[in-house]
Amino acid sequence: MDVVDIIIAKRDGHRLSDQQIEWFISNYAQGETIADEQAAALAMAIYFQGMEPDELSVWTRAMINSGASLQLGDLGRPTVDKHSTGGVGDKVSLILVPLVAACGAAVPQLSGRGLGHTGGTLDKMEAISGWRASLSLEEMVTQLREVGGIIAGATSDLNPVDRRLYALRDVTGTVGSIPLIASSIMSKKIAEGTGALVLDVKVGAGAFLPEVERGRQVAEAMVALGEDHGVRTVALLTDMETVLGQAAGNALEVTESLEVLAGGGPADVIEITVALAREMLALVGIDTDPAEVLSSGAALEVFEQMVSAQGGDLSAGLPVAEHQQQVVAQESGYLSRLDCRSVGVAAWRLGAGRARKEDPVSPTAGVMCLAKPGDKVEAGQPLLELHSDDAHRFAPALAALEGAISISENAPAARPLIVDRISKEG
Ligand code: URA
Is 116 in the pocket of ligand 1 (CB under 6 A)? Predict the structure, then answer.
């Protein structure tokens, strides 16, 4: 097998054979035969030529086989997970995992850290005093059996080829390829051992794929991959035109999640969480109303158990930033736009996110959206509250927010939060 032949075949628009795919992925994973520039050339050829559905399925299977897969065994409960393509203020996992566990399923959520303007679930959970992200396989199985939910970091032997390929795509302009995104996400989720999966594919200004059509294409590819690999999969396309809820930032989002778990919190966070929970429960045949379970407080109890099982102490309270600065409305009217990506970048510049994988994050930094699009506002009314332990960070955060806020005479049209649903049945 010759890697140059594989690159040329894809460059010229041919379907790669199963043997070519398996050879490429296993050799790239081992890190010797194939140079990064050759893998980059193949990624670029895939970017332009795409992949046939069955070709993508073989590619994804090869990625899964390149590393370990979790064998969760019999937990006494059906397993189901959720994956979000990421957005600003997306704290849904913190509520959804204990909620679905409280309804009787096991949720093995292996998450990542944030990069760029979107936050990572592990960074948020680490704002809780003492909480640790890393669990051994044995600890995962025990916690899933006893508590029903885990939020933990993926072990390094799970899909190592994705880490290598993703880092390469990041620096070669090939992240945006639909087959490469779909296989990257699904190979990780399938290797995690879940029996069913709900995908929250974000679309709109703050999403990784802002256009609805591209979101739909990636969702369709991922649903097909899940089903091909025996994982029942449904995707919701959900709106990320503005921040989800009010809080963007690690401890701020944990606080908001605790409010939702306690029966309060912002309506949009509740709507998306309950919609995803319904899909997850339907996939595993549990006929329980998650809205009722959420308002009963049972999900909060499971969250507390999940936190203490991983060394966390909620009674210590959550850290609060030393400094706050408000952004006020320049005129009266309706808040018609609050640009999601700008708020994400502002939170990141305040310290909530990282530019490089190894950077530390601040648990306290972030942005509170005191008004949301559609709200009537008065000139001088606070719209945003910036939080940071380092007051020097306010100026760059404010620069990111320039032009991010529009106020108009008339109320903007309401946008549906759930834009579409993609399943095998169509
Ligand atoms: N998230 C992933 O895990 N992989 C991608 O390719 C894109 C987003």
Answer: no
Residue among 283, 56, 304 at smallest CA distance from 181 = 56
Closest ligand 1 atom number to CA of residue 175: 6
Is residue 117 annotated as a catalytic residue, yes or no?
no
pTM: 0.95
pLDDT digits (tens, 9 = 90+) for 214-235: 999 999 999 999 999 999 999 9
Q: Does the annotation count 156 as an active-site position? A: no
Q: Which domains does the chain have, with CATH numbers?
A: 3-50 (1.20.970.10), 81-316+419-423 (3.40.1030.10), 323-408 (3.90.1170.30)
User: What does the pLDDT look like over 68-126, one tens digit per residue?
Assistant: 888 887 899 999 999 999 889 999 999 999 999 999 999 999 987 776 677 789 999 99
Active site residue 91: no
Determine the distance from the C-alpha atom of residue 408 to the mean position of all C-alpha atoms in its chain, rounded to a whole number: 32
Q: Is 5 a catalytic residue?
A: no
The residue whose C-alpha atom lies closest to atom 6 belonging to ligand 1 is 181
- CA dist 250 to 157, 340, 347, Å? 27, 16, 10
- Take atom 5 of ligand 1 and give the residue whose Cα is closest: 181
From 185, 186, 203, the mutation candidate for ligand 1 (largest count of ligand atoms within 8 A of CB) is 185
**Nearest-5° angle of CA 90, CA 95, CA 96?**
90
Nearest-CA residue for atom 7 of ligand 1: 181
Q: What is the mean pLDDT of the chain?
A: 95
Could you tell me if the CB of 185 is within 6 A of ligand 1?
yes
Look up residue 313 and give its two tokens. 């102490």
Q: Is 184 a catalytic residue?
A: yes
How far is the C-alpha of 140 from the C-alpha of 1, rounded, in Å? 40
Amino acid (one-letter) located at 405: I
CA dist list (Å): 288 to 194, 277, 423 = 20, 10, 21
Which pLDDT tens digit goes with each residue over 379-411?
A: 999 999 999 999 999 999 999 999 999 999 999
For residue 208, the ligand 1 atom closest to its alpha carbon is 8
